[in-house]
Write a structure and sequence with these properties.
By secondary structure, the chain is of the alpha/beta class. About 35% of the residues lie in helices and about 20% in strands. It folds into two domains: about 325 residues, Rossmann fold, CATH 3.40.50; about 100 residues, GMP Synthetase, Chain A, domain 3. The longest helix is centred in the first third of the chain and has 19 residues. Bound molecules: zinc ion (ZN).
Amino acid sequence: MHADPIPPHQGLPSVPDWGTALRPAGPFDPWQSFNAACDVWSGGHADAAGLARRRAWRLRDLLESACAAPLHAARLRAAGGASIGDPGRSPRAAQRAAALPLESIEPIGRAQTLARFDEACTDRAVTLERVRAFIADPSRIGEAFLGRYAVWTSSGTTGSPAIWLHDTRALAVYDALETLRFGGFDRPGRGADWLGDWVRTPAGSGGRYAMVGATGGHFAGVASVERLRRLWPWAGASMRTVSILQPLRALCAELDAFAPSVVATYPTAAGLLAAEQRAGRLHIRPHELWLGGEPLSDAVRREVADAFDCRVRETYGASECMAIAWECTHGALHVNADWVVLEPVDRDMRPVPPGTASHTVLLTNLANRVQPILRHDLGDSVTVDAAPCPCGSPMPTLRVEGRRDDVLVLEGIDGPVRLLPLALVTVMEDEAGVFDFQLVARDAGTLLLRLPPSSDPGARPACHRALRAFLDTQGLATVRVLDDPRAPAHEAASGKLRRVASGPGR
Ligand SMILES: [Zn+2]
């Protein structure tokens, strides 16, 4: 999971903010949006066979168009063998490649895609150099790259952030999936409920939407909010991104002043905010909390729902596809099976049956053409449910699992301070420029910094500078950061790296 929680697609504007009206617009195509809305509406009423038909023809379409990207043409040629010809040069070979079974294509990871970025895109005008120049400018967050693409970066352990481009058709599909399906406006038999639900949204009540997450970069969450603010400048005052890098007291004060009706954030951040609300240091009354970007346990869901006395809804998206699954009224997470193919696999990339936790999951995004996401290793462990959901939707349900980074509790000048793992990861990546690391809280007053032996010599001092500055702003001036000569330790069972961990013995 690498996306921020999803943006307020239901939220339409109420207060003019003409200051942003002159900025370049975000990527948007009204005709694509109309088509996508009609399609998502009808897909939501299709049976299992209807969904399979949609998947099948969209997959052919995706494979054929992916041949315009040399990296994917080579993958398809490898899958089909010499007899299919060269799908990167011949339209007939591309048509033959489009008929290949999806399972015959070798999976691909984030690092491989980034290493051959230009070849992984179907538009030859897109180059890594151009995209990097674009994302270096934070004032362009949410703006259309080359006038037509959204750009989202995601954190990673590969030495640089991964970069994902989405075209206007893909954005139209994500918008429609989140408005109609996640928003619940396409459920059959809703009748008068529809109006009631609409009134309770930011659009209907002039409500306010706050995304609490990492800001200041082209991350999917903040970039999506900024895109909507560019498209609907008058909506600026009813949507806000709230940085988790600020001290908790300041974060709570900002939320209290904004009084959001919907808060979207990470489960770890929501747990922290729930504790503040219970302690009387936060006083918001949202009617819904949307949680995503990390696995959500039943315990955290209950804790957060109780503390805020509101509905909690889980989302599942990533920078590679904003809308992978949606939560129904029974609390189950349904895969958007008409626009996404998810393949849960074991360590050797063999499929695992329903009811079994996967090692990772392969994502195929059927909506995006500019940077095809084709059997892409997402890194999440998921379990697809064997039994159908009582809500009646034929779209399969799943649970997203796996380990996540720890919230650290450190002793500050004015008492204990809880630090969100995402805040520490953002400081390390954005301020220090270091991606492969491990921070371990040995005790409440000591952080151990582990870097791989291959790190750049300047990395360690950069980490110390960035961490020191961050800890000082959090009231943690007395916490020491010590160098640990050991390399980051991967989990024995999964082989995954927990970059922020607490407790001795790690
Ligand atoms: Zn359901």
